[in-house]
Amino acid sequence: MPDQPDQGDTDTRQPLLGESSALITLDDRVGLSATSIALVGQARRSINIYTPDLEPWLYDNGDLIAGVRQLVVAHGRHARVRILLLDAALARQGHGLIRLAQQLPTFISVHRLLPGVSRPESAFMTVDGAGYIFRAQSDRYTGMANFCDRFRVRELNDRFQQLWDQSEPEPECRRQPL
């Protein structure tokens, strides 16, 4: 008879992008970071990030940056990463994701919202039209994620595109001359 899991066992498998549709509640920095890394690590086409200042505790992480680099290297011209900021001040202070954008400007675009544009009260990241992480800015370390909710991702991507259309390239995040 095959081994049967104990009733007390929990499913510890990593959610799969485009397949795992359970809503994940995140309530601390560790959970937000681990879930972001898991989402980015499974990206095959696109990543959209809307964030006030590209929070270093979340986005300046070697594993997350490696996942973005892997997306671009593995999928080349089919890969697209867009980062939309309110304020690039923190991002300009040696942020690893900004350095990567400067190295790979064909694939990674960094924009900032134009002055006067209504700023959302949330931050979010979408991946491949399937998965997302969403968090209210009033409570930076809590949020929710889903690896397969195409309807919600479409809503977030529509909002992202509206904001992107009201933005401009962040000049200090462009490629730096050698």
Structure in a nutshell:
By secondary structure, this protein is an alpha+beta fold. It has helices at 29-41, 56-59, 62-75, 96-103, 150-164, and strands spanning 24-26, 46-51, 80-85, 108-113, 122-127, 131-136, 143-146, 167-169.
Describe this structure in words.
The protein has a single domain, classed as Endonuclease, Chain A, CATH 3.30.870.10. The protein contains 5 helices and 8 strands; from the N terminus they run βαβααβαββββαβ. The chain has helices at 29-41, 56-59, 62-75, 96-103, 150-164, and strands at residues 24-26, 46-51, 80-85, 108-113, 122-127, 131-136, 143-146, 167-169. An 8-stranded mixed β-sheet has the order 1-7-6-5-2-3-4-8, with helices on both faces.
Helix amount, in percent? 25-40%
Query: What is the distance, rounded to the nearest whole angstrom, between the alpha carbons of the first and last residues?
Result: 65 Å
Tell me the β content.
15-25%
Largest sheet: 8 strands, mixed
Q: How many distinct domains?
A: 1
Our Rg estimate from Cα atoms comes to: 17 Å
- Uncertain runs: 1-10
Number of strands: 8
- Class, according to the CATH hierarchy? Alpha Beta
Q: What is the molecular shape?
A: globular
CATH superfamily: Endonuclease Chain A
Oligomer: single chain
CATH topology: the name is Endonuclease, Chain A
CATH architecture: 2-Layer Sandwich
